[in-house]
Every structure is written in C-alpha cells, then in structure tokens.
Specification:
- This protein is an all-alpha fold.
- The protein contains 2 helices and no strands.
- The chain starts with 19 loop residues before the first helix and ends with a helix.
C-alpha cells in the first residue's frame, strides 16, 4: 500500500500535555509562581555578584593602600 501524502498527522512537533488545571484555565498560578521564583533567583545572583565584586575590590585595594601608607610615612 502506498504512503498517503494527505495524512499530516504528527507533522509539526509534539504538543505539550496540559494538566487539568491548565485545561480549566487555572494554570496561570503556576506560571506566576515560576516568574516569582525566577525573579528571586535573579535578585540573589545580583546580590552575590555585587558582594563578590566588592570583596575583590577590597582585596585588590588592601595591598596598594598599605604600600602607599608605608611610603608616605617614610617621606
């Protein structure tokens, strides 16, 4: 039997299986929770980067400051 060219069943990828809540329109709470979680994560990452940059700047500045103080005290 020859292949049917008119039958496009399955073409175009798979569809996401919807939960009952999603089917009934109550799935938006899940989306909102994910957005809140993502926002919290981004805020935490931002704070951690700021702390790391501040610590790196402090560590890099300490040896330079001590060397400047010692040379100015000798002058």
């Amino acid at each position: 039997m020859a292949k049917s060219r008119n039958n496009l069943l399955g073409v175009g990828g798979q569809r996401k299986k919807l939960s009952r809540a999603d089917q009934q329109g109550a799935g938006s709470a899940r989306t909102a929770d994910r957005k809140v979680a993502e926002d919290k994560k981004q805020e935490l990452v931002r704070k951690m980067r700021e702390r790391a940059e501040a610590q790196a700047a402090t560590t890099a500045a300490e040896p330079g400051e001590q060397g400047d103080d010692a040379s100015s005290a000798q002058s």
